[in-house]
Amino acid sequence: MGCCDAPGLMPVEQALTEMAANVTNVSETEFCELEQAFDRILAEAVASPLDIPPFDNSAMDGYAFRFADWSADTPMPVVGTALAGQPFAGDIPAGGCVRIMTGALLPAGLDTVVMQENAELTETDDSKYARFAKVKANSNVRYRGEDVSTGDTVITPGCRLSPRHIGQLACLGIAQVKVYRKLKVAIFSTGDELKQPGETLGKGEIYDSNRIAVKAMLQRLPVDILDLGVVPDDEAKLRSVFQQADSEADVVISSGGVSVGDADYTKLLLEQLGQVGFWKLAIKPGKPFAFGTLPNSRFFGLPGNPVSAVVTCDQLVMPTLQKMMGWQAEPAIKYPAKLTSGLRKRPGRKDYQRGEAALDSDTGQWQVVTTGAQGSAIFSSMVSANGYVPLPAASGNQAEGDEVWFEPFAEWLR
Questions:
Q1: Cα–Cα dist 370/385, whole Å
Q2: Are β-strands 206-207 and 194-195 bridged in parallel, bridged antiparallel, or unpaired?
Q3: pLDDT tens, residue by residue, 22-80
Q4: Terminal C-alpha separation, the chain
Q5: CA angle 370-375-380, nearest 5°?
Q6: Residues near 386 by Cβ (< 8 Å), separated by ≥ 6?
Q7: Please, what sign has the CA dihedral across residues 186, 414, 378, 396?
Q8: Are 404 and 334 in contact (CB under 8 A)?
Q9: pLDDT tens-digit series, residues 358-389
Q10: InterPro entries of this UniProt entry (predicted)?
């Protein structure tokens, strides 16, 4: 449970493991029309119902013939035309060829296509002839099933359907797919000091940026969002919102109220209504991050500082939501980069410092510079960054020129 110089704080990696072990995947499924399936999570494997291509066809505009009939010195009579969707239906005599368009059905018995730029045409009063100086057997032909064969698994369960997947399904003529139902996520902020953007701030008040930023992140996922707004620091009102969120959602995410202040009722209510999993992590920014269970949902309590809320939502909540959605997501991308400025860090907590990385055109190496002050309330450090420099808990200061790992922001932060 301890970590370096942060006794009593759970390491980030352990927290991710424990959350994954204490959530369940959505099991309910539904059929979704293909045109509405973008971003949905596939619930069962898709097997191809046909061969792709479904027939031998031409890869070029040109001329099709039997390679065995070809001679560089002998013109071939052009006996007809094959268009995409309008196959040539006549007889092809020995030594004859057919004008053919890209995608057109290759007439039976023909095996080679020469592109039109490599054909020399001659014409008489009632006939056309084509001569081909250089020919390679079986060239420019797409063969039936060379891409996908009937019965092949083309997409596996847990895939988040992208435009590429939608295109593949359309190629197969599949009009509906089975997907997991959308996860329902309730979000709210707590605090008497919070105002909505556009309202006038009073003395000691601030704008509620956390809930709005987290909601924007969630909108990049295939989830249904229940926005419960701002809840004042009142135990009875907060209890009512907790109960509503738990009854209507699979996941409850709050912002603020997870520290040790006199008016922070979140932990108390979580203990009374459900069960606390853990409360403090060895992460910076974001030490006061909470995870627990409610009667019908899982609870994530984000810190009140804006950078802490976004970073913990990104690094802790989002991977857990992916598991709950049934999404077999790829791990975060990381690559080595050289620091062009030093970084300050004390051993004890894993630190997600914000940086801006760029590729050095001279050396071909990635370089990263800090975005300045890294305080948990300095949101400009997020805006000017394009990713994190994640520093291990045990590490200390990093000097200019040191090699570090750089982790580009995930899609929900870009």
A1: 8
A2: parallel
A3: 999 999 999 999 999 999 999 999 999 999 999 999 999 999 999 999 999 899 999 99
A4: 33
A5: 65
A6: 355, 356, 357, 408, 409, 414
A7: positive
A8: no
A9: 999 989 999 999 999 999 989 999 999 999 99
A10: MoaB/Mog-like_dom_sf, MoaB/Mog_dom, MoCF_biosynth_CS, MoeA-like, MoeA_C_domain_IV, MoeA_C_domain_IV_sf, MoeA_linker/N, MoeA_linker/N_sf
